[in-house]
């Protein structure tokens, strides 16, 4: 509410016709309730933040959610948080990946904002000096897998959930930086096999190839394992840790820093292709029918 008032006051100050009187503020706040938050942050006594994706039903990644996630990471950095545990409010889906509705029959401006927000939020998560763990408490296809891969450690609830970069199954190609993340985790050979087939791995299969680091049987265990992973860094000098992480992730960081504009252009050109639009439409239809 305080933010709404501040924004309104600034807006009213810029216009001659509006007076930001208490009555005006009351009327405005009654007619426009604040939208629900799509990402919640809870910092525990040890200074470890649980960042929860909360966009029912499947945490598909739209511009709003990605924006909130990016802001949350920046805020946690500013507050010198000791660790980030990324998880989901759903019992069965970590994240369904990019919101296909952002890409299907899009307006050019929205599409550009969507992809730029994804690039920025991804880079913030991938390069943050804060230790990061994905507590994957449900399915994690495509962009959901990307978020998990961008963390330093992955604990997944099993055995019934699946994870992977399944883009080829949708007739689309995962961008280079998605591939770099997969290669970081499982090596070039396994990444090539996984990505060309668009394979979704069971939790056990993911563990076998190193796509996840630990399999647990429920979310509480996942959070406990994540806390354990983060706690080990209490003994490591932070500067050495930060420089090591930045250095070992250099390929992905450099790729985005140098190619963000080309990557945006490639995405914009690809998505509007009639055959891609047709494929996305059919995929959405198929999801509805499979219910
Ligand atoms: C072109 C350049 C490269 C772009 C890169 C793209 C990467 C991506 O991330 S593309 C997105 C890929 N995602 C998927 O393939 C996942 C699709 N979803 C699923 O497989 C399942 O939904 C699930 C296993 C995650 C969950 O299954 P569950 O049975 O619990 O839920 P559903 O009934 O399937 O879905 C509920 C509801 O949500 C809609 N939905 C699901 N996923 C998406 C999505 N990614 N984007 C938008 N909407 C999605 C689904 O259609 C249902 O909607 P309705 O209730 O309206 O029917």
From TrEMBL:
<keyword id="KW-0007">Acetylation</keyword>
<comment type="function">
    <text>Key enzyme of fatty acid beta-oxidation. Able to isomerize both 3-cis (3Z) and 3-trans (3E) double bonds into the 2-trans (2E) form in a range of enoyl-CoA species, with a preference for (3Z)-enoyl-CoAs over (3E)-enoyl-CoAs. The catalytic efficiency of this enzyme is not affected by the fatty acyl chain length.</text>
</comment>
<comment type="subunit">
    <text>Homotrimer.</text>
</comment>
<dbReference type="GO" id="GO:0004165">
    <property type="term" value="F:delta(3)-delta(2)-enoyl-CoA isomerase activity"/>
</dbReference>
<keyword id="KW-0276">Fatty acid metabolism</keyword>
<dbReference type="GO" id="GO:0005759">
    <property type="term" value="C:mitochondrial matrix"/>
</dbReference>
<dbReference type="Pfam" id="PF00378">
    <property type="entry name" value="ECH_1"/>
</dbReference>
<protein>
    <recommendedName>
        <fullName>Enoyl-CoA delta isomerase 1, mitochondrial</fullName>
    </recommendedName>
</protein>
<dbReference type="InterPro" id="IPR001753">
    <property type="entry name" value="Enoyl-CoA_hydra/iso"/>
</dbReference>
<dbReference type="GO" id="GO:0006635">
    <property type="term" value="P:fatty acid beta-oxidation"/>
</dbReference>
<comment type="pathway">
    <text>Lipid metabolism; fatty acid beta-oxidation.</text>
</comment>
<keyword id="KW-0496">Mitochondrion</keyword>
<keyword id="KW-0809">Transit peptide</keyword>
<keyword id="KW-0443">Lipid metabolism</keyword>
<keyword id="KW-0413">Isomerase</keyword>
<dbReference type="InterPro" id="IPR029045">
    <property type="entry name" value="ClpP/crotonase-like_dom_sf"/>
</dbReference>
